[in-house]
Every structure is written in C-alpha cells, then in structure tokens.
Amino acid sequence: AQSVAQPEDQVNVAEGNPLTVKCTYSVSGNPYLFWYVQYPNRGLQFLLKYITGDNLVKGSYGFEAEFNKSQTSFHLKKPSALVSDSALYFCAVRDPGLTGGGNKLTFGTGTQLKVEL
Amino acid sequence: DGGITQSPKYLFRKEGQNVTLSCEQNLNHDAMYWYRQDPGQGLRLIYYSQIVNDFQKGDIAEGYSVSREKKESFPLTVTSAQKNPTAFYLCASSIRGQRTSTDTQYFGPGTRLTVL
Q1: Cβ contacts of A51 on chain B, cutoff 8 Å
Q2: A64: Cβ–Cβ under 8 A, 6 or more apart, which residues?
Q3: N or C terminus of chain B: which is more exposed, having fewer CB within 10 Å?
Q4: Exposed (0-12), middle (13-18) or buried (19+): which is B70, by Cβ within 10 Å?
Q5: CA B67 to CA B2: how far, in whole Å?
Q6: Which chain A residue lies closest to B37 (C-alpha atoms)?
Q7: What DSSP character marks residue B13?
Q8: Which of A42, A98, A104 is the closest to B48 by Cβ?
Q9: Coil, helix or strand for A108?
Q10: d(CA A23, CA A75)
Q11: pLDDT digits over B60-108, tens only?
C-alpha cells in the first residue's frame, strides 16, 4: 500500500519569512513524490517531484523540497514567502514497486498556507 | 491547467438525474484520470484509463461510469446511484499510465457539481 500524511491543516507565516509545509509517506519500496498547489476553485498545478538522485529538488516559483528516506519525509520549503503563495498545497506519492493500479497517485489531505503581511 | 479542458465549470443537478462531465486534452497523453475533491479529504481517484478503449476503477467508482473512445476525451457520468455527488471533480492526464512511469499528472481546471 501507499499512503501520505500532511500533519498540518494550516500553516501561517509572515511575508519574507521561510516557509515549510510538511509531508510524510509510507511505501514498501522507493517512492515517487510530488507536490502540487491549488488556488481557490482551480485545478492543481504541479510544483516539483522526486524520482531519484539528489535529495534536494527545486521546482516552480522558488519552491524546493527535501527527500529524507530515513524520516520518510518530503517537506516543501521556500526561503522567503510571498502573500501570493497563499494557497492549498498537496503532497502525493506513488510506489512504483506495487503491481497493478497504473500510474495511481495517493494524495494527502492538503495544507492551507496563509502568508500575511 | 495547460492543454486540459473541463466543462462545464459549474453544474447543477436535481436528485435522480444523471449528468456527464467533459474532459478533453490536446497533450497527446495516453493516460487520463478522474478525481473527486471534498473539503478536508484531499483527492480520491474515481476512474483511470491507461490507454484508449481501456479503463479501470479507482478507489471510489461506485455510482460513476466512464468511457474512453478517443485518446483526447475521457467523459465522466455521475449516475443517480451516487449518493453524495456534490463535490469538485478534477480530470488529469499523463504521458504514460504504467505504475513505473515517472511522468507527472497534469490537471484540468475542474467542474463543481452541486445537487439541488
């Protein structure tokens, strides 16, 4: 089975401060991990993914995420938050070692990020 | 949102009616997906299709049906058997649909269905 958890329903941060949105996963093998962002009444936009290689992945809009296998985590980070970063963020996982199920992703429940002036 | 379109943006349905949500992509992707989003529950997979003329049930397929007669199109029908259909429905696609694929899923803008 594959699962993912986002332990925080909401994260508040002041503009200009660093932000972190947490994600932990559970798979039997090596995971493929993804971050998406959703603005109100819109579809999900892809930010970044980890497949293999360097544990630090850089993505769109200045976001990055660090894969930590020992802690089974894939936290999303940004050095300096903007008010425009306020949105709903989803972490997703796929275990390529499972049989069947196609290119199925399992999503977390989402974390609402609020960046204030 | 890229080359994936969903229509309509908003849809209202009376209880007991079937409705069909449209999803079209011009990305030449083999695989397409339907998700349902409810507040606080993230996204749940309804159906997916790895290739034309083939589709598989996801985690919450009961009360839904799909077809994949063309590569570009993957319509979702919400039937009267779906007990709680009010939700935000998202369509996605990816180049390939195999489990070992490293391809990203890209999403359409969504359809908000409300049952009156």
Answers
A1: 102
A2: A48, A56, A57, A58, A76, A77, A78
A3: C
A4: exposed
A5: 22
A6: A109
A7: E
A8: A104
A9: coil
A10: 5
A11: 999 999 999 999 999 999 998 888 999 999 999 999 887 777 889 999 9
